[in-house]
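[audit] Reproducing an earlier prediction to check determinism. Same input, same settings, fresh worker. If the tokens differ from the archived copy the diff job will pick it up downstream; this log only records the rerun itself.
[audit] input (79 residues):
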Amino acid sequence: MAQVLIRDLPEDVVERLKAKAAAEGSSLQAHLRRLLAEASGLDRHGFLSLADDIAATTAGRQHTDAAELIRADRDRDGR
């Protein structure tokens, strides 16, 4: 795993982050790791959960092949 060092954080910011971590029952490091994962948009668990939710809401529906839609759009534009 990679490591990141953030320099010159204001002390009040660190104290607020520590308080939020404590309120969640986690360490500062775990809290920051979660915040950075969420901010990066690459949280695998969250992505898979969202994909499952979307799949569940569209279950049983007939889906059009995306290639057919693209082809129809191109034919309409004369490409």
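[audit] rerun output stored. Observation attached for the diff report: Helices lie at 11-23, 28-40, 44-57, 66-77.
[audit] end
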